Amino acid sequence: MVVNMKTLISANLAHSIMAKEAFVKESLDDILRLTEWIREVFENGGKLLLFGNGGSAADAQHLAAEFVNRFLINRRPLPALALTTDSSILTAVGNDFGYDLVFVKQIEALGKPEDLALGISTSGNSPNVVKAMLAARKIGMKTVALTGGTVRPGGDLAAVCDMVLNVPSDATPHIQETHLWLEHTLCEIVERQMFGTP
Fold this sequence. Notes:
Elements: H1 2-43, E1 48-52, H2 55-68, E2 80-82, H3 87-96, H4 104-110, E3 116-120, H5 127-139, E4 142-148, E5 163-167, H6 172-195
Parallel strand pairs: 1-2, 1-3, 3-4, 4-5
Helix pairs in contact: 1-6, 2-6, 4-5
């Protein structure tokens, strides 16, 4: 049993690394372009609005925390807001209008043309994330999605976002692990661009 678990651990690590390597090979230029968009948003007085479901909700909160507090550099807070954290808003909208609109209402209330909407969806098909992107585009915000999959890369979000960063894997854990790696990489590059080397 121990030998089998050691094999499982090694295989999981190898597949996680493969997912990240495939993602970077496909998306390197877009990763760099997204860091520029985020930096421009912060420098022009805008904010980053982040959202997703489940593990992607946790990612939204994690990324917001890194920008508001710090990543590797002690610097001024950067305006990033996770739309996944206010249980009163989420339950009120979900109860009165349906779960599909829990992010739409917040985008409509808080979003400005100078902001960037970053939606995270492992499948690319989360209805509430898709609808929030449509609302953000109506406002004039830039829209970016982090997704995964090989059959329909980007899923439904591919048709409604300015940029889709898709992990070419069908393994949910490896997609989510790659998203977290990307989120940390975005933070580090944006900090370096704005504040120098740590």
